[in-house]
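Our platform keeps sequence and structure together, in a single record for each protein. Because each token names a local backbone shape, the row as a whole describes the fold. One such record is reproduced below, unchanged from the form in which we store it:
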Amino acid sequence: MSAPKTSSFPLAACAEMLWRDKPIEWRASRLKEMGFGVGLWNWPEHDLGKLQATGATFTIMNGYLTGRLTDDEGAAELLRTARETAQIGKRLGVQRLNLHGTGLGDRGLPVQPIEVVTGAMWLKARDTLCRVVEMAEEEGVTFTLENLNLPVDHPGVPFGRAEDTLALVASVNHPRLRLNLDLYHAQIGEGNLIELCRKCLPWIGEIQVADVPGRFEPGTGEVNWNGIARALSAMGYSGPIGMEAWAAGDPEVALEAFRAAFTI
């Protein structure tokens, strides 16, 4: 008789992308009832008291409001809003606060697109992240740096590829700064997902998923998510998996498909 299947990973889902006709606190409560953690985007859009009252586990949230890694002015703004966000994150008990190479605006497009990332920008980005780590130590929080795809959703974002975020996080090499390895974005931009996970493994704080094409739940596209789940388990990863995806139909059906994909 084969052993019963169980989920090897703590699972969460992005509340903003599901039940979009419901208040955010209703979504957080329903995710908690279904056994999922809750991912959030920008906190100023929400009633923090109502979210706190749900008792949900908040796994990740955007860790800044404005700013960028690549220049003095942008870095100062990123650090200012990241410190402010750290206070909110502690209030909600958010486990990880997420960063990007630059601030994102409407439809996820960069507020300040950068087509060519220079060597000086790389050095400034690493310096900015070292300053983020110092602040994170003071505040007792953890930040992640997320990869984004350039061809479809986020053209002009610096350090968008997973190989870029890995290079930055590995160079800082501090437990207060981890990777938010988004496999939806990586599949579009890079592929070879299992080997990418293996390469990133020492620095992963969270893995996020959505199927390709369409950015819907696992099982709607081309990726063998159960195969990736088995590979992650075999390489010793037992950390969080977050579904940052739209539901192709009923959100609860989408969530159960996600759970099944990461049950081995």
Observations:
- The first strand starts at residue 11 and ends at 14.
